[in-house]
Structure formats: structure tokens, C-alpha cells
Task: inverse folding
């Protein structure tokens, strides 16, 4: 019962702030709603017994990525808002229609999945550690060591790319 | 009782909000934020199924998704800044330099 209350409260906040991110007129307000949205998603991870991922979410998303967005919004000092001029070729209705089609597809997939519930695979086979952080770390440094190293290489490449792109003369 | 289906429906709704943001808004910074919402929806799905299957691999993949999202944000925002210096706009309708 308590879990249901927590889930519905968090879900309402997540979806509400996500709506505000999309419909907010001011880009700065949009970024601030995005921070709140990420914090509630982090709380949802804690509810899902993944506290390590919740902390990562707060540190990387709410702390790092959103600050990057905020800096870009401040640097891009717009004299005229991008939505100001009306574009006759804009297809807002088509956009909403396609979104509804995707929603129906996802609902069909979710309904199909719930009709055949997945069975639990062997929990943590051969894992000598207990606790969420220890188990995730164990997987990262054993079975998923090579993807982990590739992810670090990806971050290095992205860092160099961002520095090159931000240079005054390209 | 909260089943994984509840989390999947929440994830689908968040995904759709992100898709609507990408399709309807014209400010590229808000489109990037909508993409972050979509990636968060994917992560919620991964973590919910990780709990359902009693297996932490889903959380490992969620960490990889967060790493890729960080890289995407850094490079994407760098491109936005470089473009803004040249054309003084963040409206994607005016971003047609490579349009055939």
C-alpha cells in the first residue's frame, strides 16, 4: 500500500514536470523543471531497489548535464525567441498524431508483455558480494569490463569533441 | 500492488512526452532536453525489469545509457554553440545548411 502511494505520487510528479519541460515558454524555466524531473526519477530508482543508480542520476544528470544546459541557455542570448516567427510548414497536428500512434504501439507491447509475465533468472549467479552498489560494481568490472572501457573511451572522445567545437575558430 | 507493467506504462508516457517535445517544439535546446526525457524513460524501463528479473544487469545498462547521454549532451551542446556563433539562431527550421 505504501509502495503504491509512493509510486503514484512519484509518477504524477515525473509526468507533470516532464509536461512542464515541454510546454514552458522560457527556456530557463524548462531547464529548472528538468532538474526537478530528474530528481523525482532518482527517487523512483530508490523505490526500485537501485539506490546506486539513484545517486548516479542525481550526480550526473541533475548535477552535471543540467548545469551544462543552463550554461548553454545563458550563452545563447536570444534577441528573438525561436518560436516567435510562424512557420507555415509546421505540422503540429501531425506531430501529435504520430505521438499517439507511438503510444498505442507501446501500449500494445506492454499489454503483450504483461500477458506473459517474465520469469526470474538466477539471481546474481556466482556473485560473491551482497548489496546493490557492490553487485553493480562487480558486474561492471567482470562481465561488462570491455563495454565499461569503451564507455570511458566514448566519454574521452566526446570531451575532446566538445572542446574542439567550442573553440572560437572552427 | 505495483507490477512492472505500471512502471512500463509510466515509462511509455514519459517517452511520449519526450516525442511530443521533439516534434512540436522548434527550440533545439528544448528538443535536446526532450531527448534526455526519452533516455530517462528507457532507464526506468531497464531498472523496473532489473527488479522484476532479480538481476542487476539492467542497472549496468542504465549506467551505460547515462554515460552515452552525458557524451551526447556535451557534443550536442557544443554543436549548438558553434552553430549559434555562425547564424545567431537556435530555431531548427533555420538549420538547413546541409539540406539537399
Result:
Amino acid at each position: 500500500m505504501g509502495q503504491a502511494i509512493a509510486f503514484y505520487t512519484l509518477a504524477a510528479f515525473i509526468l507533470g514536470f516532464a509536461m512542464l519541460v515541454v510546454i514552458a515558454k522560457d527556456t530557463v524555466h524548462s531547464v529548472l523543471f528538468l532538474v526537478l524531473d530528474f530528481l523525482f526519477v532518482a527517487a523512483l530508482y530508490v523505490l526500485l531497489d537501485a539506490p546506486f543508480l539513484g545517486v548516479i542520476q542525481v550526480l550526473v544528470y541533475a548535477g552535471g548535464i543540467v548545469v551544462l544546459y543552463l550554461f548553454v541557455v545563458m550563452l545563447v542570448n536570444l534577441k528573438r525567441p525561436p518560436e516567435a516567427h510562424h512557420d507555415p510548414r509546421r505540422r503540429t497536428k501531425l506531430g501529435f498524431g504520430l505521438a499517439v500512434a507511438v503510444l498505442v504501439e507501446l501500449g500494445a507491447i506492454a499489454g503483450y508483455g504483461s500477458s506473459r509475465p517474465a520469469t526470474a533468472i538466477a539471481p546474481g549467479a556466482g556473485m560473491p558480494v551482497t548489496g546493490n552498489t557492490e553487485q553493480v560494481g562487480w558486474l561492471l568490472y567482470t562481465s561488462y569490463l570491455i563495454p565499461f572501457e569503451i564507455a570511458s573511451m566514448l566519454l574521452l572522445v566526446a570531451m575532446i569533441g566538445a572542446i574542439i567545437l567550442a573553440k572560437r575558430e572552427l | 500492488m505495483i507490477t512492472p507493467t505500471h512502471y512500463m506504462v509510466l515509462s511509455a508516457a514519459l517517452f511520449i512526452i519526450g516525442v511530443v517535445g521533439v516534434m512540436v517544439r522548434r527550440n533545439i535546446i528544448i528538443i535536446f532536453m526532450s531527448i534526455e526525457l526519452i533516455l530517462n524513460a528507457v532507464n526506468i524501463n531497464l531498472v523496473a525489469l532489473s527488479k522484476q528479473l532479480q538481476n542487476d544487469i539492467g542497472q549496468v545498462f542504465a549506467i551505460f545509457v547515462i554515460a552515452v547521454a552525458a557524451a551526447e549532451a556535451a557534443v550536442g551542446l557544443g554543436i549548438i554553440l558553434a552553430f549559434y556563433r555562425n547564424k545567431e539562431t537556435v530555431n531548427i527550421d533555420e538549420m538547413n545548411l546541409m539540406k539537399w
Summary: The CA atoms of residues 59 and 107 of chain A lie 32 Å apart. The helical segments of chain A are 2-23, 27-47, 51-75, 92-115, 132-141, 145-166.
